[in-house]
Amino acid sequence: MKQWKTIALALGCATLFSSFTAKHEYYVSVGEMSLNPTTNQLEIGLRIFTDDLEYALERAGHPGLDVLNDETSAEHVSEYVLDHFRIWNEDGREIKLFYLGLEGDADGVFVYLETKVKSGLPEEVQVRHAILMESFPDQINILHYSHPDIPTSLRFDAEEPTQTLELQDL
């Protein structure tokens, strides 16, 4: 009987400690993009697992970076995010995005971007959302475009990191 208690205790501890590991079986980030009519800004918020972002930054040459506490992390996060999340108008010209910062905790961070919309939205844009795809081949990124009449969602993966977002009917 004592053996069974020892085995049960060992299995319970193994299960408990394995639930605290930083690894997870799925790789998904979710983002939100919307036009703020008051400021005429296209606002973007991307939710990313903290450990995955730090791993991608490590692979990009920034080992041991703590994105929540290192003062130097903002520059590296900005560079990484702006390289992997991009938008082009229908003429193929890139729309310049500005990194505003991030907030979060050990589980996940929200990264914020924006751009000024000078003369209304184009009819369609190309969006490349390849964040974490170089580090995790199964990474899926979802981007919700909020519009009061027609909300739209796009799904990005390694095979299709760039999608067309049609805005003409919005």
Automatic annotation (TrEMBL):
Signal sequence segment: 1-24
Keywords of this entry: Signal
Signal is among the record's keywords: yes
UniProt-recorded name of the protein: Uncharacterized protein
Organism: Phaeocystidibacter luteus
Pfam families: DUF6702 (PF20420)
Database matches in InterPro entries: DUF6702
